[in-house]
Write a structure and sequence with these properties.
α2 packs antiparallel against α4 (63-70). The radius of gyration is 16 Å and the shape is globular. The model has no long low-confidence stretch (mean pLDDT 78). It has helices at residues 3-24, 34-49, 53-59, 63-70. Helix content is 69%, strand content 0%. The longest helix has 22 residues, at 3-24. It has one domain. The chain contains 4 helices and no strands.
Length: 77
């Protein structure tokens, strides 16, 4: 790789790490089956949309991040 690719990879990896950490908060338990996972996503996204500003701050999410995740259909991860 050349130097420019290394810089882009480093900067992009930091962005991916930040996005991964944000997603860690709302991940479902690993042992869920497909339908249980769908139900878990639908319920947790509905709850996420109803959190107030203080609760969102506690979990480290902005209103926009919560809205984006909360409006996703249950079948999307």
């Amino acid at each position: 790789m050349n130097g420019l690719s290394d810089v882009r990879l480093t900067l992009h990896s930091q962005q991916l790490l930040a996005e991964h950490e944000a997603r860690q908060i709302i991940n479902a338990p690993a042992a869920l089956g497909r339908w249980s996972l769908f139900w878990h996503r639908a319920r947790s996204r509905r709850v996420l949309l109803n959190l107030d500003e203080n609760q969102l701050r506690d979990v480290g999410l902005s209103r926009e991040m919560a809205r984006r995740e909360g409006c996703k259909p249950f079948w999307r991860s």
